[in-house]
TrEMBL record:
Domain Peptidase S9 prolyl oligopeptidase catalytic: 137-341
MF annotations from Gene Ontology: serine-type endopeptidase activity
One example of a Gene Ontology biological process annotation: proteolysis
Domain of life: Bacteria
Name listed for the protein in its UniProt record: Peptidase S9 prolyl oligopeptidase catalytic domain-containing protein
Membrane-spanning ranges: none
Record key words, sorted: Hydrolase
High-level lineage: Bacteria, Pseudomonadati, Bacteroidota, Bacteroidia, Bacteroidales
Species this protein is from: Odoribacter laneus YIT 12061
Length: 360
């Protein structure tokens, strides 16, 4: 339960569980508590917006020496759930922000590979958590676009509530890819990769399966692969996120949950992908990823994978800043290098450490 829910429950206990009240008073108190809960949610979103602005400034501090940084306003498909489908503008495309990172070392008259970077988290955003990884990509002279797809935090309550997990968010990410091809002459349309971890890994797989031939390759780290299986081991609060915005539980609409799951779209994969998972992952259970691996094998797809055995860091094992994580990311970049051919590939892990951390 979040802090707003805790306050709500505590107030309810004090007002109803301790003090004797009439039915009418109880109804009034419940109404007031609901208003309090709404106010708490509004404060939470306002706080997230402030934190987003702070983190946007931090991007310049942490990678501004190696990257030109921009934030662009794009359009994706209309909202999935429309309270009033006949209202003016109901079918307008949903607007969203995307980060653009361009290495300061590039020659604008030449072509460079593009990485489409999908952030993780059901309700999350692209933050400086990824600063060292962006530095590593800049050093290799990849251009990067990272969409703040629908449901991302830091953009207010309305945008947060437009979440479409496993659905239209995939089109938002694809729209960011197309924007880069259409508007940046330095982007090589024939060298586009997609990558992400966790939910971002799920979006990576869904984009590869939904838009075959549009990406040269991909990397999916600890990806959510089977939303139906996930509902089986997730908490009640986590399940509620899905049943609220999808409209039904997995039990009552299995087909819809299958549509949003990479494993049930595996037969559509055409392009090479590298998949990583970890047996000690405390978020995406390894069984989900194993299911995806078996499905891809059954369809005879071209892909690579590695199942790490209790790697330190659990769900974040190859995103943290340890020596082992650096070694693993180095292998990821070597995989991408085969297909995307960046102009300055890393020659050693020592070079990679220097690029990310300035020292080695």
């Amino acid at each position: 339960m979040n802090y707003v829910g805790c306050i709500w429950g505590f107030c309810l206990f004090l007002c109803i569980g301790v003090l004797p009240v009439s039915a009418q008073q109880e109804s009034e108190i419940l109404g007031q508590l609901k208003e309090l809960q709404k106010s708490g949610e509004a404060v939470k979103h306002s706080f997230d917006e402030v934190m987003k602005k702070v983190d946007d400034v931090l991007w310049y501090e942490r990678v501004g020496d190696v990257a030109f940084i921009d934030k662009v306003y794009l359009c994706g498909p209309p909202k999935a759930n429309k309270p009033n489908p006949t209202a003016m503008g109901a079918d307008n495309p949903l607007k969203f922000w995307s980060y653009v990172f361009i290495p300061k070392s590039i020659d604008p008259s030449k072509k460079y590979p593009l990485i489409v970077f999908a952030h993780s988290g059901v309700h999350s955003d692209f933050t400086t958590y990824y600063a060292h990884i962006i530095r590593e990509l800049m050093a290799q002279e990849y251009i990067v676009v990272a969409a703040e797809y629908r449901g991302s935090t830091g953009y207010g309550s309305s945008y947060y509530q437009n979440i479409d997990y496993g659905g239209l968010e995939n089109q938002d990410v694809y729209a960011s890819r197309n924007y880069m091809v259409e508007n940046y002459s330095c982007v090589d349309k024939d060298r586009i990769g997609i990558m992400g971890w966790s939910h971002g890994g799920m979006i990576t797989l869904m984009n590869l399966c939904t838009y075959p031939g549009e990406y040269k390759c991909g990397f999916a780290g600890v990806p959510v692969c089977d939303v139906i299986a996930r509902m089986g081991y997730a908490t009640d609060n986590y399940r509620k996120i899905f049943s609220d915005h999808i409209g039904k539980t997995a039990r009552n609409n299995i087909a819809e949950y299958k549509r949003r799951s990479p494993v049930w779209n595996a037969e559509k994969l055409k392009d090479p992908v590298l998949i990583h998972t970890n047996t000690s992952d405390d978020d995406v259970n390894v069984v989900e990823v194993e299911h995806m691996i078996r499905a891809l094998k059954a369809y005879g797809k071209k892909f690579d994978y590695q199942i790490f055995q209790e790697a330190p860091g659990g769900h974040s094992f190859d995103r943290i800043d340890t020596k082992e994580a650096t070694e693993i990311r180095y292998s990821i970049y070597k995989y991408l290098e085969k297909y995307l051919k960046p102009s300055h590939p890393f020659k050693s892990q020592r070079d990679m450490r220097r690029a990310a951390y300035r020292f080695n």
